[in-house]
Specification:
The structure holds two protein chains of two kinds. Chain A is an all-beta fold. Helices cover 3% and strands 32% of the residues of chain A. In chain A, the strands form four sheets. A nine-stranded parallel sheet of chain A has the order 1-2-4-7-10-13-16-19-22, with no helix packed on it. Chain A has an eight-stranded parallel sheet with strand order 3-5-8-11-14-17-20-23, with no helix packed on it. A six-stranded parallel sheet of chain A has the order 6-9-12-15-18-21, with no helix packed on it. By secondary structure, chain B is mainly β. In chain B, the strands form four sheets. A four-stranded mixed sheet of chain B has the order 1-2-3-4. In chain B, strands 5-6-7 form a three-stranded antiparallel sheet, with no helix packed on it. Chain B has a three-stranded antiparallel sheet with strand order 8-9-10, with no helix packed on it.
């Protein structure tokens, strides 16, 4: 287990040490640079990334920002046709903001394709969206055994106008369960192209299995500009979505599970990405101890 | 049976240094006490020296010596005012109050130190450590030893923090979303 670094003033021609860091995250995660169980530390700063992922590049890597502050370590993929970011085993990501990831080609199964027990904590994902073609089919995050904890998702969507199978979080086959815990999900419908909005759902259990479970707890979802038609889409009724102690406002939720409310969560200023809770928020102290 | 009687000086027991005693040739069966080496000697054609010490302290009871009377108020079953060195505690067949033993537990796969109390062998908790687990959401402080023993004390606040650094669980309550509201005022001034 070795530790490597990327930094805003780094260079991919360097050796990845702290004194001589790389620049692009997905150069660092390449199999020629790092191995499974290696740690990649993202030094604070905003990075205009120039290298996309290469399939299963996150396999078992531990990627974290040095400050563990996602507002200080920002990876911006704007203008880059990001390849599918895959992980076949146990990646851990902590304290990083990923933004402007909008791939339009490649295989299906999401922008992030998590496949086996990933742990994503204290991260911000803004505009991580598949907008067309097969990308849209898998959701922003195609998940299996993934746990998202204390993460924020801003204007993330993924949908295909030709197939009703988008979703921020998507899964397909049997046993591909995932958890969303203490997360904040926000998007403004006005930011999403109209042709992609209507089929959109937060949770999508696609074709390919009958025994999938998505668990959502202590999570706030706020949709501005319009209301979702449905919070969770379960293709052919196969699979289960368990929602507990969450606030789903304009999110298309019509169930009656324990502790789930649909009132305004009263963020301080959602349109400017300030998702702190106002003192009168119904979300304060109403989560479930998990 | 050998007769032990007074020596040629009419003294019942010669008390002198070991060197002086060995230089004498008393009657058969004479008894002497060597003050410098604290040993008894008997004469049987030659001086025979005891292997055990005889320490003339009436208030002390020696290990392994059967006492015919309780000279200092202690019974023969007691050892007191002694220091045991290089002693190990192993099995103990006596189920009496205060018994101590070290036994191997097949089910746990490790050794246990036990004391016999209240009619049963009670395992003494050893090797206890205190830890807080930063990756854990449930708010607690854990006393841990081996895997079967974990004692958790709930503090009300979690070790794990939310994206804004505030404990996910505060005062046994948890907020929804990624930004926990800071309920606890800790330090500072108005």
């Amino acid at each position: 287990m070795a530790t490597f670094y990327i930094a805003p003033d780094g260079d991919d021609d360097n050796d990845g040490s702290e004194a001589s860091p790389w620049f692009n995250l997905f150069y660092a995660t390449g199999s020629a640079q790092t191995n499974t169980s290696d740690t990649i530390i993202v030094k604070d700063g905003t990075y205009a990334q120039t290298v996309g992922a290469d399939g299963d590049s996150l396999v078992n890597r531990y990627i974290k920002s040095q400050s563990l502050n996602p507002k200080a370590a920002i990876l911006d993929f704007d203008g880059l046709n990001t390849q599918r970011i895959g992980s076949d085993s146990g990646a851990k990501i902590e304290g990083i903001k990923f933004q402007n990831m909008n791939p339009t080609n490649g295989s299906s199964r999401g922008v992030f394709n998590f496949f086996n027990g990933e742990y994503i904590k204290d991260c911000i994902f803004e505009r991580v969206s598949g907008t067309d073609g097969p990308r849209g089919r898998g959701g922003s995050f195609h998940t299996c055994g993934t746990r998202f904890e204390s993460c924020v998702f801003i204007d993330c969507w993924s949908s295909s106008p030709s197939a009703f199978d988008g979703g921020i979080f998507s899964t397909t086959n049997d046993g591909f369960d995932f958890e969303v815990v203490n997360c904040t999900i926000y998007f403004n419908a006005n930011d999403i192209p109209a042709e992609y909005f209507l089929p959109f759902a937060i949770i999508h259990l696609g074709d390919g299995g009958s025994n999938r479970t998505a668990t959502v707890s202590n999570t706030v979802t706020l949709v501005d500009g319009a209301s979702l038609g449905t919070f969770a889409e379960i293709r052919n009724g196969n699979g289960t979505v368990n929602v507990t102690n969450s606030c789903l406002h304009n999110a298309g939720y019509t169930g009656s599970e324990a502790g789930v409310i649909t009132t305004d969560p009263l963020f301080v200023d959602a349109s400017n990405s300030d998702f702190r809770l106002r003192p009168a928020s119904p979300c304060i102290g109403t989560g479930g101890l998990t | 049976m050998k007769y032990i009687g007074p020596d040629s000086d009419g003294t019942g027991v010669t008390v002198d240094t070991r060197e002086n005693i060995l230089a004498t040739t008393p009657q058969q069966g004479a008894l002497a006490y060597a003050t410098d080496v604290q040993r008894l000697l008997t004469y049987d054609g030659g001086w025979q020296e005891s292997s055990a010490l005889m320490i003339p302290r009436s208030g002390a009871v020696d290990i392994g010596v059967e006492q015919a009377s309780n000279l200092a108020g202690y019974g023969v079953d007691y050892i007191t005012d002694k220091r045991l060195s290089n002693v190990s505690i192993g099995s103990n067949a006596d189920t009496e109050l205060g018994g101590v033993r070290v036994v191997f537990s097949e089910s746990l796969g490790r050794n246990l130190t036990q004391v016999y109390l209240d009619g049963a062998w009670q395992t003494v908790l050893t090797g206890v450590n205190i830890q807080t687990d930063a990756a854990e959401r449930v708010p607690d402080i854990e006393f841990t030893d081996f895997s079967p023993w974990v004692l958790s004390l709930i503090t009300g606040n979690s070790d794990a923090t939310d994206i804004n650094g505030v404990p996910v669980i505060q005062n046994m309550k948890i907020d929804m979303g990624a930004y926990s509201a800071p309920l606890v005022i800790d330090g500072g001034s108005f």
